[in-house]
Amino acid sequence: xxxxxxxxxxxxxxxxxxxxxxxxxxxxxxxxxxxxxxxxxxxxxxxxxxxxxxxxxxxxxxxxxxxxxxxxxxxxxxxxxxxxxxxxxxxxxxxxxxxxxxxxxxxxxxxxxxxxxxxxxxxxxxxxxxxxxxxxxxxxxxxxxxxxxxxxxxxxxxxxxxxxxxxxxxxxxxxxxxxxxxxxxxxxxxxxxxxxxxxxxxxxxxxxxxxxxxxxxxxxxxxxxxxxxxxxxxxxxxxxxxxxxxxxxxxxxxxxxxxxxxxxxxxxxxxxxxxxxxxxxxxxxxxxxxxxxxxxxxxxxxxxxxxxxxxxxxxxxxxxxxxxxxxxxxxxxxxxxxxxxxxxxxxxxxxxxxxxxxxxxxxxxxxxxxxxxxxxxxxxxxxxxxxxxxxxxxxxxxxxxxxxxxxxxxxxxxxxxxxxxxxxxxxxxxxxxxxxxxxxxxxxxxxxxxxxxxxxxxxxxxxxxxxxxxxxxxxxxxxxxxxxxxxxxxxxxxxxxxxxxxxxxxxx
Length: 508
Hints:
Blueprint: E1 3-14, E2 31-46, H1 51-54, E3 58-63, E4 69-77, E5 80-86, H2 94-99, H3 101-104, E6 110-125, E7 131-144, E8 153-163, H4 170-181, H5 192-200, H6 217-240, H7 246-263, H8 270-306, H9 316-327, H10 331-340, H11 342-356, H12 368-392, H13 397-424, H14 426-464, H15 470-497, H16 500-507
Antiparallel strand pairs: 1-5, 1-8, 2-3, 2-6, 3-4, 4-5, 6-7, 7-8
Helix pairs in contact: 6-7, 6-11, 6-12, 6-13, 7-8, 7-13, 8-9, 8-10, 8-11, 12-13, 13-14, 14-15, 14-16
């Protein structure tokens, strides 16, 4: 993967005659040294409908400066972006193209804006000489290269303060305090590209912008569907970059979406949503190939780490590492292949098509206060049946299976509550929270079931290799006790989730 840098910066409005104040008076700054003037030539790329700009992503090819090359920036938080760098080349480097695939798909990426900047840089250092931040005065000239406003130009001056690698963000606050005292104010645009697009786009009198109005039950369901699709698309680059928890979060979004299609079959045409649900199930399975093993490894590893050395007999950690490696599928490469494959991209296109032309049934036009509680309570009744069955089972494999089925129903009921929350408010929030607690108990129980089977296999392998199986038996006992504790806890947690008043609130 290309080089990645966490960029933390702040931008300020300036004019051609703006002069930097003495920033050595900012707390922590010992020296302010002029570093010279650099000419930068950057061409920004996007699709014709500006998909990247709409998500606050920037893709540019820049010459001049120490880091010339291709840069792709993903927003992390206000003033914070991850900048991914590839060496200078004529064409867009494949690693960057892959990170954009979920958004771009079949569209062409082409130049949209060119920025010529004269950057006057000053470096702020501490008393020990450590670099704290770079402050630059940028005189910018922008030219629109495509789309509305082609040929239009704009010019402005801005001040940019970028924190040094591993720097203390408090320095940015101290510098801002000095700049504000000198009359300098924060910029209204988040980036140079955003300002260039704003100033080179013809202005119109338009109304109706913002989030779609939520008048009907169908509006609320589509809003939730739209949100989950956005999560999948946004997490695609994070999964490719192997960022922590990204695979898990993407998998959860696919499950939420599939569950929503099932819950709201009365509002959405099944002929459209059932095939999409099948594809979402496939995607979730692909994403889960190594995720489940990762969760199991963490659980067993923490159990082993907690044991006294006197009870860790034999090559326990080595045996566990070998067992885990044998079970892993090499899915890191497999997941990337899935994300690059036609089936996945076709799924994203089909989801976009659903949003563009929603397959709404007549019931979707009903008031959300009427239709959504009905859907939530339907899922709740299914959960109640499964819970009743699970609680009636004697301890053993039958109860384990019944509790696992109840867990899946709890997830679906919880997601139904989340969908209804914007319309129903606190009752839906309380419902989802209580059902999530049930899901958590059932989930931990299922994790213990899986862990016990894994420990049994490890004990068999150890015995076959002439090793003692004592430690695996001890851990099995711990997992058995953990499962029993969850089983004892479940009736009370379920009682809170099925309180009559909680359900009655949903109907009001």
